Amino acid sequence: MDFILFIKAIILGMVEGLTEFAPVSSTGHMIIVDDMWLQSEEFLTKYVANTFKVVIQLGSILAVLVVFKDRFLDLLNIKRKKPEQGTPAGTGRLKLTQVIVGLIPAGVLGVLFEDYIDEHLFSIETVLIGLVLGAIFMIIADKFSKKEPRIVTVDQMTYKQAFSVGLIQCLSLWPGFSRSGSTISGGVMLGMSHRAAADFTFIMAVPIMFGASLLSLVKNMEYFTMSALPFFIAGFISAFVFALVSIRFFLKLINKIKLVPFAIYRIVLAAVIYLVWF
Asked: How far apart are CA 164 and CA 102, in angstroms?
């Protein structure tokens, strides 16, 4: 593989890994880095480039599984997880059925409107709208968040709260709004700590992203070529490594800085896209 292509694969994997789980919209960053700069479609072709972007998402998913391995083993009743620090005595634990309940709203709407979203909402204009509206939503969430949240860890969540966060997650079907931005904001507005909302967001992201990635991979598999394999491997590893670093850093930081700094960054990002693109 050409050295320049190798570097481009690493850069795209880095962008995916660093932005997929932060509330800043990975879609917006891909537009800037790939569509405006690297232009992977020119050397991979459109369909192979789309498949590549799916494959690197799998790298990000693997990073979540590594960070939350104990939690997922607990959800599957394979290994009981020790209670998190700050969890009140007598508190239960997050159940797999609660995660499923949280996935239902966006899952149903995503299936029903997938074609419409792909055909009509994936444009620079809609992404800019999503970035700005998502930022406003995050600022509102922080403004009305409680200094002492009722839900300190995900183990204190109820089914009603899980479903409510799932409903709010439907906002992320609009490109640029950000899945983590919508769900963390929604969780905070429902009385959760920023860390608890982030944990639930990342846990829900695994089945959502894996299902969507697998479906897209199957649909585009015919366009995959062996000559592109080194490019795919480099991007996958890059996405995994940078997502691993990003997730650990974000989880340590989120309760301290909350959402407003990310909201400001999103508005700046939207302004940059607008100025460069238009």
From this structure: 7
What is the distance between the alpha carbons of residues 27 and 231, in angstroms, rounded to a whole number?
20
Q: What is the mean pLDDT of each run of 10 residues along the chain (278 residues)?
A: 84 95 90 84 79 88 96 92 63 91 94 84 90 97 90 94 96 93 96 96 93 81 79 94 96 94 96 88
Distant-in-sequence, close-in-space partners of 69: CB < 8 Å, separation ≥ 6: none
Q: Cα–Cα distance between 93 and 82 in angstroms, integer? A: 10
Q: What is the pTM of this model?
A: 0.91
Are the CB atoms for 140 and 263 separated by under 8 Å? no
Helix (H, G, I), strand (E, B) or coil at 53: helix
Which residue(s) pair with 192 in the sheet? 151
Q: Which residues contact 240 (CB under 8 A, 6 or more apart)?
A: 13, 17, 59, 60, 62, 63
